[in-house]
Design brief:
119 residues, mainly alpha, extended
Length: 119
């Protein structure tokens, strides 16, 4: 669409991308099909977390991992918190922050202790 707008605007109008990711690889998030997802979701279940799967509409550093063939799962333990990412009044409740540390410890432990056969 942007290229079409440039063409319609006349000669000499073009878009130059500093960074443009064309990798469309996704990380499998189906139970029993991906050992990384199974370890992650297992830790979440042990922590009694509900998982809501979604595709993040903005860019994350995960794109660089996926472009190298490394599965990447974005996750935030900030429950019951308004989404104020990079907003002028971004905040996090102390108890949510401390609970997030416990959650990350469980997830990291599960991922770090996967059998090498699974990887």
């Amino acid at each position: 669409m942007l290229n079409r707008i440039c063409e319609e605007s006349g000669e000499g109008i073009e878009i130059v991308y500093d960074t443009k990711s064309t990798n469309k690889d996704l990380t499998c998030v189906e139970d029993g099909k991906c050992p990384w997802w199974d370890a992650f979701s297992s830790a979440c279940k042990e922590e009694k977390l509900s998982i809501f799967k979604t595709i993040f509409p903005a860019s994350t550093d995960s794109k660089y991992l996926r472009s190298c063939g490394i599965p990447a799962i974005g996750f935030s333990p900030m429950n019951n918190t308004p989404i104020l990412l990079h907003d002028h009044n971004e905040f996090l409740n102390e108890n949510v922050f401390l609970r997030g540390i416990d959650i990350y410890c469980s997830i990291i432990s599960k991922l770090a202790n996967m059998n090498s056969i699974q990887i």
